[in-house]
Amino acid sequence: MTRALVVHPGPEFSVADVYRGWVRGLTTCGVQVREYNLNDRLTFYTGAYVKSPEGEYVKAFPTEAAMEVAAQHLRSACYDWWPDIVVVVSAFWIPPFVLEVMRARRHRLVAIYTESPYEDDRQIGLAHLFDHVVLNDPTNIDLYSPITDTVYIPHAHDPTVHYPGTNDRDLDCSFVGTGYPSRVQWLEQVDWDGIGLTLAGNWKDCGPTLEPHVIHGLDECLDNDQTAEIYRRSKTSFNLYRTEANRPDLQDGWAMGPREVEMAACGLWFARQSRPESDRVFPMLPVVDNPSELGDVLRWAANNPTLRDRAAEEARRAVADRTFERHAQSLLQRLDI
To answer: What is the dihedral sign for C-alpha 212, 185, 18, 93?
Structure first.
């Protein structure tokens, strides 16, 4: 049986949902999976305090040292179990020397990159440490391919989490995601008259206009199960791509994001910003180009539930085959496992 050690990305945002999806997908494919809980280790070591000679409690490790200690045991996990592949989601919180040692010991390293194209500069800088790279957006795949084996695999949904609910939807409109400044500025310009807005995710810098709509602490997040439940309770939603990137020329991607796939799988109608892949997969869902359009489109959807639900069902069918199990099968075939 193939053994895979899957490494948590560290942060508990949407990238952690990708991690959990790949764990389930590989397991469903018959792979023996062990998880490396980098998130818990980072929390422990960054939050550890010791008593100084002066009697004060101070942090035991500076941030960089805490990262190194949290990742150190990754090598032990490899040598104790000797997996066939090590699947690292994101890789931003793992010191390069740890990956270098693992690769020198002939462990087969696979990176699941989740931040293309926004952070391709950072991701490309680490690509040489991996035998294989999986991209969530192929915009800059030609820059990766000369470095290592690289493939584009779309975002996926987990059918055990993302599935349609009943028609008893008590929320007008929801959006779950990080409150990047570009999104805050965009949403502050929308006419929300007659629309109950529900926001979730990290919105610590959202300001007084949007703050009343956040359903939890501003610096908190929802896990994927709760997010999917919000989607099933909502009549409408929308997708906004962030514009924050390593460089301005990395703002515009080709692929749609994970939340679009998840919303569609949950049977949720949503308005969207245009991208080539989204336009190809979701022609039944409306495109909004600016904030002034969104309120009108959402009010139309509220007043036309039959047409709205029909489009949502078409969108659900369009992503029915985009599951982590199928993507895990695709990866294993590429690795000839």
So the answer is: negative
